[in-house]
Amino acid sequence: MRGKLISFEGCEGAGKTTKLRMLKEYLEEKGIPYLYTREPGGNPVSENIRAVILSPENAAMTPECEALLYAAARVQLLHDVIEPALAAGKLVVCDRYVDSSLAYQGEARGLGQDFVRKINSYAFENYLPDCTVFLDIPPERAFDRKHGADKNDRMEREGLAFHNKVYAGYLKIAGQEPKRFVRVDASGTKQETFEKVLSLLQSRGIL
Ligand SMILES: Nc1ncnc2c1ncn2[C@@H]1O[C@H](COP(=O)(O)OP(=O)(O)OP(=O)(O)O)[C@@H](O)[C@H]1O
Ligand SMILES: [Mg+2]
Predict the structure, then answer these.
(1) Of 134, 116, 132, which is closest to residue 69 (Cα–Cα)?
(2) Atom number of ligand 1 nearest to Cα 12
(3) 141 lines ligand 1 (CB under 6 A)
(4) Angle at Cα 147 formed by Cα 146 and Cα 151, nearest 5°?
(5) Model's pTM, two decimal places?
(6) Using CA atoms, how far apart are residues 24 and 35, in angstroms rounded to an integer?
(7) Strands 131-136 and 91-95
(8) Which domains does the chain have, with CATH numbers?
């Protein structure tokens, strides 16, 4: 049987990687076959594209160029990593995916969701997640958790106004696609939030 695809979304420092680490431990304990990957990256070609996207040296990059690079890295990841894992029946868990492009490039950069959906049609048409966990915490509080932005990351260097637009973008998607893109209150402790994530995935028949 073909595997399922889930993604985790949220602002910088919302706790995606931490909750995914907890989920990986859970899946290992239960013996559930899974594949963990992250965006942008997850394979040699896409990791190289990631370095170009995130490098502060590329401050002159246009929003369109940025969006196309994310889409390009994603196609390679789908081809090299995600499709084979789904075909092998694994649960694929992705740290960021298409909704990051909708929120960051579509909403915060102002390119519009239509543009982002068009250049990512390969992903949207063939690999829409079975469930997306949106870790809901406003950017200001999330940045506090990670003790401020990473100055070596071109996206994180953007000011709070930009990250507030990203957050508003995520809330908009939650309103547009409430069945797939599910808001989880991420303001509590790691364990509290993880338990919310688990019960969501259990209620969806994913775990
Ligand atoms: N529920 C929580 N309560 C308190 N601190 C948390 C919680 N979840 C995560 N953290 C801490 O917040 C910091 C950021 O978490 P994490 O790296 O998981 O976020 P992220 O969403 O993956 O961020 P990024 O977008 O930068 O990859 C870490 O130091 C982590 O230990
Ligand atoms: Mg992370």
Answers:
(1) 116
(2) 25
(3) no
(4) 90
(5) 0.97
(6) 9
(7) unpaired
(8) 5-203 (3.40.50.300)
Question: Hey, whose CA ends up nearest to atom 25 of ligand 1?
Answer: 12
Is 145 near ligand 1, meaning CB less than 6 Å away? yes
Best residue for ligand 1 mutational test, from 16, 36, 146, 163 (most atoms within 8 Å of Cβ): 146
State the amino acid at position 58 in one-letter form: N
Q: What is the DSSP string of 138-164?
A: -HHHHHHHTTS--TT-TTTTS-HHHHH
Average pLDDT over residues 92-109: 98
Q: What is the pLDDT of residues 126-139, one digit of tens each?
A: 999 999 999 999 99
Atom of ligand 1 nearest to the CA of 193: 1
How far, in Å, from the CA of 157 to the mean position of ligand 2? 15
Site of tokens 């995916």: 97
